[in-house]
Every structure is written in C-alpha cells, then in structure tokens.
Design goal:
- By secondary structure, the protein is mainly alpha-helical.
- The protein has one domain (104-427).
- Helix content is 63%, strand content 1%.
Length: 448
C-alpha cells in the first residue's frame, strides 16, 4: 500500500477536518459583512460561534438574529449542516454529483463518520442517509413554514422554517426568534403544540442515528432488530417519557417555569424540555429559573445525550445502557455483562466506563474553572460545563458573563464533545497502538 495509506487514521482525519471547518467558519464570521452592524464581531465571538455551530452545540455569546446579517446567518446554517451530518457526508454530496468514485480512504472516513462498524455497502448507506436527511429536513421546513406563514409572511416564514428545521434535526439549538425577544429561544411558543412537537420530532429523529434508521426501515420487526438498535430505541423511549415525568414533578409548581401554565401546556413543555435536553439546546422554559432538582436532573439528561452515529452528542444512550448493565451484573455477582441473550465484550464495557469517567471529570473540572474565574454560582457553572461537553447548548444565561479563560475552556469542551473524547484520544494519542510485549505480575488492592 502507499505510505500515506499505511498510516491513514480516520479518527485523526475527522478531528482535523472539524478543526479546519471551525477555523474557516471563524474567518467568515469575522468579516464585517457577517454582522448587522457591518463591523467585525471580534475574534473570540467569531471563534466561539463557529465552534458552537460546527459542533452543533447552541451556546452563544450573542443573539443569532440581532448580531448576524443574512450572510452571517447563512454561514451559521451551513456550519450547522456540516457539523450535524459530518464533513464526510457533506463532501460525499460533491463526489456523488460529479459521479466520482469513493476510494478506500474515503469509505473508511464515511464508516467512521456514520459510526458504522464495517465498510460493507457504506457508499449505498451514505447515499440513503443523505436522501433521508433531505426528506426529513424538507418535511420539517414545510410544517414550520405553514405554521409561520399566517403570522410572518411568506419570505420570513420560509427562512424561519428552513433554519429551525435544520437546527432541530442537527440538534444545534440555534434560533432566529431574536426579533421577538433577543435570547428568548422558543419560549414565545410555549403554548404552540405545532411548533414544539414538530421540533421535538426532528430532534428525536436526528438523535437516533442513521444506522438505526436504516435497520428499522428495512427490518420492521422487533425480534429481528440488532441488540444495538433495540437498546437505542429502549433508552430513547425511557429517557424521553421518564424525563418528561420527572421534569413535570420537579417544576409543576414553579411559577417561573411550568407553574403558571395550564395542565396540557405543562405536559407539553415538560415533554419538550425532556427532548431538547438530549443535546438539542432549544429553551422552551427559562433554564436559570429551574429548581435545583430540575437543574440536577437536566444535567443528567444532557450528559447522556443521543445515540452514536447521530447528530447528537453526550455519552450516548447505549454507552449509558452498557454502564447500567455492568453495574447490575456486578451487583448480582456476575462477571459477564449480558443483554437479549448476548454477551457484551469486556473491551466495550471498559470503553464505556472510560468515556463516562472522563466526561464526568471534565464536566466537574470545567465547573470549577468557570466558577473560580467568573461571577457565577457552582450550579450555573456546572450547567454550562455539562452543556458544552455534551454539545447541548442550554444555559442559565451565564455564557456572555464568563471570563475569557472560561470561554476558551467552553470552546475546547464543545470541540471535544462533538468530535468525541474517544475519537480524539485514538486519533492523536494512539494512532498505531500495539500489544505490550510483557506483563507485570498482579497485585492485590483494597477496593471499597
């Protein structure tokens, strides 16, 4: 094989590609034409926004509508689309349009971008995924446009429909409702089931993962689904429904969130909060006014996130399920983790535990740095830190008040959260891992 292929590493390529897109987006947003005031927004604001959009997070130092011009909003929308689908998915569109052939390295990048375990029929899967995404985003655009049309007119309704359909499906959380109230997100639609449920469906579809889509549509029978797909669907259902119930219980008498709403609206907004916490980032209710219980539970949902190979971030649903199954097995004295009459390899369990431990540690460290350098409470700092590393985008309205070191840390966390802690570690730290040639003797330690 050629020398460059011998050392070709998809993890490293994906990490560098995302970094390149962020830098390009920063340069475009720095242009005076990208801002409504026709003056440059400044390097830190441009870098923060480009990172947040490319990593489909949603945290922002400025309001998207009031700060960015039409050109700036188009740049943001393109970065969201590239970040949500993955750079290889977007690049493959040009390859398919010009009828080019995808080489081995390209297929490896496609498989890594989609979260596939192999390269069998990966080109056909990529084509199907692009068509499915176009169909879903188009349907979402039509539904939202029809809702906005009587109120805002044709041109603005189409712009709002397209932008928010893409933002919701890609789990980005950016909005253009600043003309109603800067920074209000979708809070003006708390009593609008059409808008909230349409966004919810788009968010859920985007967070399931393209491989799950493909299998569900092809198999259509529960018994024949793979173990992975079953776990994704179970966890998604449990987290969505269970999250809705617990948020309702935490906030039902809080006058600043759900307390002042009618019964149906309480359930609608509790459901939307449960869905958007899974890395979408739209705020249907005020996050800073949540109860302490509500904030704690929200951080748990943010950390879990969506599924692998999707537009969502977080630990991922199956990763969390593997950890829970491992704990359940250990509590019963078993050394092998099993589910649906299948055993989960020890290596996968160790990977899940490693990612869990690393993300929890980073989230706690980030909270300490933010509260030490910025005038915010520990709870608010933890909320911001978890939101960044899980690429959620919800905030207790402290993003713009953070110090420069805290903002730089959040930028780094968003990048880590989107590209993936495991991907970065494999790409940069261990590109050519080898088995050790020797092994030390075992030792005995007291645990617990």
């Amino acid at each position: 094989m050629p020398k460059f292929r011998r050392y070709f590493n998809p993890n490293l390529m994906i990490s560098l590609a995302f970094l390149s897109i962020i830098l390009l987006g920063t340069l475009l947003l720095l242009l005076p034409a990208a801002s409504r005031s026709h003056t440059s927004c400044g390097f830190l604001t441009a870098l923060f926004t480009a990172t947040s959009t490319t990593c489909v997070t949603g945290l922002s130092l400025v309001d998207t509508y009031t700060q960015w011009s039409g050109f700036g909003q188009i740049v943001i929308l393109c970065l969201i689309q590239i970040g949500g689908l993955g750079f290889m998915s977007v690049a493959s569109i040009l390859i398919f349009l010009f009828r080019g052939r995808v080489g081995l390295s390209g297929q490896m990048l496609m498989a890594q971008s989609l979260g596939a375990s192999g390269m069998k029929d990966i080109v056909q899967l990529q084509k199907w995924m692009l068509r499915a995404c176009l169909a879903v985003e188009s349907a979402g655009t039509l539904l939202l446009t029809f809702r906005f049309l009587p109120v805002y007119g044709f041109v603005r309704a189409v712009r709002l429909g397209l932008f928010h359909a893409v933002s919701a499906f890609c789990n980005a959380g950016f909005d253009l409702f600043g003309f109603l109230e800067p920074g209000s997100s979708v809070m003006h639609f708390q009593h609008d089931p059409w808008v909230l449920l349409t966004l919810s469906v788009l968010i859920i579809l985007g967070s399931l993962g393209f491989l799950v889509w493909d299998e569900v549509l092809k198999v259509r029978r529960w018994r024949k689904l793979s173990v992975y797909t079953k776990l994704v669907l179970i966890m998604t259902f449990v987290l969505t429904v269970g999250g809705c119930l617990l948020i309702y219980l935490c906030e039902y008498d809080n006058a600043l969130t759900l307390g002042a709403m009618s019964g149906p609206d309480k359930w609608l907004n509790a459901f939307f909060q449960s869905v958007t916490l899974r890395t979408a980032g739209f705020a249907g209710i005020s996050q800073k006014n949540l109860t302490e219980c509500g904030k704690a539970f929200s951080m748990i949902l943010m950390l879990i996130g969506g599924s692998s190979g999707s537009t969502a971030g977080g630990l991922k649903t199956v990763t969390m399920m593997v950890i829970l199954l491992f704990l359940w097995s250990r509590m019963r004295g078993k050394t092998v983790v099993t589910v649906f009459h299948r055993s989960i390899p020890a290596g996968l369990v160790l990977n899940a535990l490693s990612i869990f431990g690393l993300m929890i540690s980073l989230a706690f460290l980030g909270a300490m740095v933010i509260t030490a350098t910025s005038p915010v409470s520990l709870t608010e700092a933890a909320y911001e830190s978890v939101s960044a590393i899980a690429t959620v985008g919800l905030s207790c309205d402290v993003t713009s008040r953070m110090s420069v070191p805290a903002k730089l840390l959040i930028i780094l966390y968003m990048y880590f959260g989107r590209v993936g802690v495991l991907t970065i570690s494999l790409g940069f730290l261990h590109p050519h891992a080898a088995e050790p040639r020797y092994r030390y003797a075992d030792t005995s330690l007291l645990i617990g």
